[in-house]
Design brief:
It is a single chain. By secondary structure, the protein is mainly α. It is built from 10 helices and 4 strands, in the order ααααααββαααββα. It has one domain: Rhomboid-like (Rhomboid-like fold), CATH 1.20.1540.10. The longest helix is centred in the C-terminal third of the chain and has 24 residues. Keywords: Endoplasmic reticulum, Membrane, Transmembrane, Transmembrane helix. It holds the Pfam family DER1. It comes from Fusarium solani (Filamentous fungus). May be involved in the degradation of misfolded endoplasmic reticulum (ER) luminal proteins.
Length: 260
């Protein structure tokens, strides 16, 4: 039974799995005092003290203490669900490095907006979740989605989440609004402006990040890009190939005769 659970766990999308696991583990460790929760909250002032708490901009996106445990349940569910959608079913993120670059950009913009607007949110996870929801639903126009007991247009889900937070005691609509703005900024710079404004793609994945994250090897050609399989060639020593438009009788080599 445990082997099946572990196999199912490791079969889930890697980025969604790791983000959700880190969120659940850090929140539980902080809530039960294994790690002082004081060291997990984010505040910009901690970055300017000596020594600076450089981990706080990361842990701030991986905790859900407010209204525990309901916040953890809902946030973990939405984080995994929409991150998995982006990782496995969104054409805008064909490689894992593309999604990682998206997450880094969105989180950086949320941190910048939170500082410039003077909100000083201690927990930033709702902003990241809302950004993922917005990005995932942009390619679902015309489809319907279920939000609690209501059926709404898919692209309206992020706005329903913000409205629900505004009506709920202790909701976090402002950090969610920052996530919405960050996701729209990414959408504008990578899709709207290049496709409809005729401009260049301004947010390409940097080379240093591609060198860190493993991606399929590609072969550059004058007429496109071919992906090389990671495994060895399956062709036999006779030189025959298993695919192609020619009939099988044309692919095998005979004994051969000298001409002339």
């Amino acid at each position: 039974m445990s082997d099946r659970v572990l196999a199912a766990y490791w079969a889930t999308p890697a980025i969604a799995r790791n983000l959700t696991t880190a969120t659940v583990v850090l929140t539980l460790l902080g809530f039960f005092g294994v790690i002082p929760s004081y060291y997990l909250f984010y505040h910009p002032s901690y970055l300017f003290q000596m020594p600076p708490h450089l981990w706080r901009p990361i842990t701030g996106f991986l905790i859900a203490f407010e209204r525990f445990p309901m916040s953890l349940l809902f946030d973990a569910y939405h984080l995994y669900s929409y991150c998995a959608q982006l990782e496995t079913g969104n054409a805008r993120f064909p490689r894992k490095v593309d999604l990682i670059w998206y997450i880094l950009l969105v989180c950086s913009w949320i941190l910048m907006m939170d500082y410039l607007f003077g909100f000083d949110h201690l927990e930033l996870l709702p902003g990241l979740i809302l950004a993922m929801v917005y990005t995932a639903t942009q390619d679902q126009r015309g489809q319907k989605a279920q939000y609690f007991f209501f059926t709404v247009p898919a692209q309206a889900v992020p706005f329903c989440m913000i409205a629900f937070s505004m009506l709920m005691l202790g909701g976090r609509p402002m950090i969610q609004l920052e996530g919405l703005l960050a996701a729209h900024m990414y959408d504008f710079l990578t899709r709207i402006y290049p496709e409809f404004g005729g401009g260049p793609v301004l947010l390409r994945v940097p080379a240093w990040l591609e060198s860190i994250v493993r991606t399929p090897r590609t072969a550059k050609r004058t007429y496109g890009t071919a992906v090389r399989p990671s495994g060895p060639s399956t062709g036999s020593s006779t030189g025959a190939e298993t695919g192609g438009p020619l009939p099988d009788s044309w692919k095998s080599r005979g004994k051969g005769h000298r001409l002339g």
